[in-house]
Specification:
The complex is a heterodimer of chains A (260) and B (254). Chain A is of the alpha+beta class and 260 residues long. Chain A is built from 8 helices and 12 strands. In chain B, the strands form 3 sheets. In chain B, strands 2, 6, 7, 8, 9 and 10 form a 6-stranded antiparallel β-sheet that branches. In chain B, strands 1-3 form a two-stranded parallel sheet. The chains are: A alpha+beta (260), B alpha+beta (254).
């Protein structure tokens, strides 16, 4: 009987929490923490010398060459972002987002989910089958939780940070991401007109890949209620939106996960 | 006035008919002839659409809808759905007499097939009683798309199916149909989209409690994580516990 692993690391600009049910080998956590810090160094839009910052400021190939052994990963992220820009019809567009350092490239909306997904793969390669990783509210789950049931995930209530709007039960492998403007007072801009998107309070997406769920949640948030029809075309993904006047609109496939 | 039941805690909330896949190819459901009373034959599909599965109108009982029937909101939803898909915000309105009736056949997959490619203004009667007028998808003429405003007297959207005008975007031609029952949007059907398949998405609506006292408390819900919150619930719990410990200590308790 293992006691499990619990760890919270401040990295990638947020709190990353790692819960492993079926192991108590601390090196599991050490590997993940090291990975997240490596990702942060290369992909942080806040760091002047990060690869992402250099890309935003100009020469792509020169910037990528500074990524060291993460060059393949940088290329993978660039390629994925390019694909997503097409999939979302330009709503998800890291090249239209001004980074904190002034460059015009901020793939954070994809990188966080991607990094967590890779971390999940690392745990699986080491034999873990039951864990969850939560990076600032974007979450992957594998298997069942410590009680043997689906992982219970709350959806933040848009008006009350200490309350939740609903609870979903997720039996892994699944991922869930929420996009909203209530955290940090930041705005998600609609790349199509450069204006802040605020037609709804939040958008949540559940699906197999956190990287895509994260990008889709951002897209759904920008699209608003009508984005649900768009999301329904994305195989394997489902979601809900919460309006400013607290109406929750969701698809049946999403509701199948609701437990409260 | 008594406090409204928290819809999230309403036990009836999960009383749904047998789970149906929400996003499903229309072909996955039986192409049934109209149920009892539906003696009127469906128009045959046009030759050009002979192999395409027909989309179906599936008004469902409204008893499970917890959200209030908000006609204006729902109307804006329909319009916004059309706009996202690049559609003109033009809908034809199809009269209905009892689409909201809880016809069990409707939720058993026995639904009336509506031929999206039927000639303009061809009326089709569904088992639920809805008369659906379909448009020629090739036609984008506003004169064909009759826009009927919901009855102003009730402030609710009339039951029935509302077909959006087809629109061509970079992915191809897209057309959606919104189905209303009991004043609520119960189904959005995507009749055509780029890969030629057809899907349908049912939109459920419910009201969330606005008062924190009525909202689901994080503690009571016993969740492992909170999606959309950048703080971690575990950290919050630890922090809360330390605050409680501190308060107890400063109060001279254990």
């Amino acid at each position: 009987m293992t006691s499990g692993l619990h760890h919270v690391e401040m990295v990638m600009g947020t709190a990353v929490s790692i819960d492993v049910v079926d192991s108590d080998d601390p090196t599991f956590v050490d590997d993940l923490v090291a990975w997240f810090h490596r990702v942060d160094g290369v992909f942080s839009p806040y760091k002047e010398d990060s690869v992402v910052t250099r890309i935003g400021h100009g020469d792509l190939s020169e910037a990528v060459s500074t990524a060291g052994d993460l060059v393949p990963d940088v290329l993978e992220v660039l390629h994925a972002c390019e694909e997503l820009r097409t999939t979302t019809d330009g709503v998800f567009d890291p090249w239209s987002v001004e980074a904190p350092t002034g460059g015009m490239f901020d793939p954070s909306g994809y990188v966080k989910g991607w990094a967590v997904e890779r971390a999940a793969q690392m745990l699986e390669e080491r034999g873990s089958r039951r864990f969850s990783i939560n990076a600032g509210g974007d979450i992957v789950v594998r298997g069942l939780d410590a009680s043997g049931g689906p992982w219970r995930i709350g959806l933040r209530h848009p008006h009350h940070s200490q309350a939740i709007a609903a609870v979903v039960g997720l039996a892994g492998p699944l991922a869930i991401a929420t996009s909203g403007s209530y955290e940090r007072g930041t705005h998600v801009l609609d790349p199509r007109d450069g204006l802040p998107a605020n037609s709804i309070a939040s958008a949540t997406v559940i699906g197999p890949s956190l990287a895509l769920a994260d990008a889709f949640a951002t897209t759904l948030y920008v699209m608003g209620i009508d984005g649900l029809a768009w999301l329904s075309l994305q195989e394997g993904y489902t979601g809900c939106v919460i309006t400013h006047d607290l109406q929750m609109l969701s698809t049946d496939a999403f509701d199948a996960h609701l437990v409260a | 006035m008594s406090r409204p039941i928290d819809p999230l805690l309403d036990p009836r909330r999960n009383e749904r008919p047998a789970a149906r896949p929400t996003v499903r190819p229309a072909a996955a459901r039986p192409s049934a002839a109209p149920a009892s009373g539906g003696n009127r034959p469906l128009p045959p599909p046009l030759p050009s659409s002979g192999t395409a599965p027909a989309p179906r109108v599936t008004p469902r009982p409204t008893g499970k809808r917890k959200g209030p029937a908000r006609g204006s909101k729902v109307a804006s939803l329909v319009v916004s759905i059309s706009s996202t898909l690049g559609l003109a915000a033009l809908f034809s309105h199809q009269d209905t007499t009892s689409a909201a009736s809880a016809d069990p056949l409707l939720d058993n997959g026995v639904t009336g097939a509506i031929d999206a490619t039927a000639p303009p203004t061809t009326p089709v009667t569904t088992p639920g009683g809805a008369t659906v007028v379909t448009l020629d998808p090739a036609s984008t003429s506003p004169s064909v798309v009759a826009t009927t405003a919901p009855p102003a007297s009730t402030g609710a959207i009339a039951d029935g199916s509302y077909l959006g005008a087809p629109s061509t975007n970079r992915w191809g031609t897209v057309q959606v149909q919104a189905v209303y029952a009991g004043g609520s949007l119960v189904d959005v059907q995507i009749l055509s989209y780029p890969d030629g398949d057809r899907k349908s998405v049912a939109i459920n609506q419910r009201s969330l409690p606005s008062m924190i006292d009525d909202a689901i408390s994080i503690q009571a819900a016993d969740v492992a994580h909170i999606s959309g919150a950048t703080y971690t619930w575990r950290s919050y719990k630890v922090s809360l516990q330390s605050a409680i410990d501190s308060a107890r200590a400063s109060s001279g308790l254990s």
